[in-house]
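[job 4471] stage=fold_predict status=RUNNING
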Amino acid sequence: MDHLRTAIREIPDFPKKGILFRDITTLLKDGKLFREAVDIF
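[job 4471] inference complete, writing structure tokens
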């Protein structure tokens, strides 16, 4: 599960200060990781 967490980027203060945005586009680009995430759900 840690490899899935590392595939999700964390962008602090986006879109405004105090918010931690989690960008899943890197996870979506990797078919194998995306499939694993869907299977977990």
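[job 4471] summary: DSSP finds three helices and two strands in the chain.
[job 4471] exit 0
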